[in-house]
Structures are given as structure tokens and as C-alpha cells.
Amino acid sequence: MPDAPQKQIEGRGWWPSVETEAGAKGAAHQGAGAAVIVASITALFSVLAMFDIRILPGFSPLSLVDAGLFAFIAWRIYRMSRAWALVGLLGYVAEHVYSIYLRGSTATAGWFVGVIILLGFISGVRGTFAYHSLSAGRNIAANGGVPDRTGQS
User: Fold this and answer.
1) How many CB atoms lie within 10 A of CB 64?
2) Is residue 15 within 8 Å of 127, Cβ to Cβ?
3) Among 37, 19, 134, CA closest to 77
């Protein structure tokens, strides 16, 4: 990890570094990974619900739409979309709040895994915003101090 700051090399950094474009991409890809996990688990339990195997409450065959949405979110975060990183984070939080509202404290059974996934989404938001900020700075420097107005940054 030659591009990583010293505090992360030594294991003192809690968050992935977003000080370089490579670090920002890595952080954003953690958000994409979190969305893939949500999409995969949701798809699995919704397919099981199609066969009337209900391991966890709240999943139905209609949950496949939710799984597809999170798969799309994962793809867009992987492509460094700031808006979709925010949609993924807010959607994940909204689903958990709604789940707690419907089922009460039983919905918090997997809170540890939920927090890990939430941290992944937060990392994705940090990474996408930092990536665009760093790449815009690079484009301005490459153009001799003139901002790039082509919309391709």
C-alpha cells in the first residue's frame, strides 16, 4: 500500500484514505460492495419466499425489486456516481428505520452486520465525493488553471 497514509499502514486509521484518487476509488468500491451484499441477501431471501420458505420476516417475492434496485445502486457507485452513493446510503437507512417501525426491537437482531454495511455505504459516499473533488483538481491543473467546461470530469 504505497499510496496509503502512514496512519493506515500502521493500523491507526478507521476509515479508508480518500487523500488520493486510488484511495477514493477504493473507498467508493466499499460502498459498491455494501450494495452488492444487500442486493444478494435480499435476492436470496426473496427467492426463498417464492417457495414459501420464510426464514426472516419482511421478505416477499416483491423484494426482488428491492434487490434489483440495490444491484443498480452498486453498479452506479462502482462507476463513481455521487448521487447514487447518497441514494444507496439513504435507502439503506430508510429500510432499517421502516423495519424497526414495523417489527420493533426484533428488527435489530442483525445490528452488528447492519452497522458494518452502513459503514460501507458511508465509505462509498466519502469515496465518490472525494474522487470527483480530486479528479476536478487534476483536470484544472492539467488545463493550466482553467476549469474543464466539457462536463467530462
Assistant:
1) 18
2) no
3) 37
- What are the sequence ranges of the domains in the chain? 24-128
**pLDDT tens profile 23-53:** 999 999 999 999 999 999 999 999 999 999 9
Cell numbers of 119, please? 459503514
**Cα–Cα dist 52/111, whole Å:** 25
Worst-scoring range by mean pLDDT, 33-47, 73-87, 103-117? 103-117
Amino acid in position 50: M
Let me know the angle formed at the C-alpha of 86 by 80 and 92, rounded to the nearest 5 degrees: 120
And the C-alpha cell for 73? 445502486
Give this prediction's pTM: 0.82
Instruction: Assign 104 to helix, strand or coil.
Output: helix
Residue 153 corresponds to which cell in the numbers above?
470530469
Q: Say which residue the cell 488545463 belongs to.
A: 143
Give the Cα separation of 146 and 30 in Å (integer).
32
Q: What's the distance, CA 13 to chain centroid?
A: 19
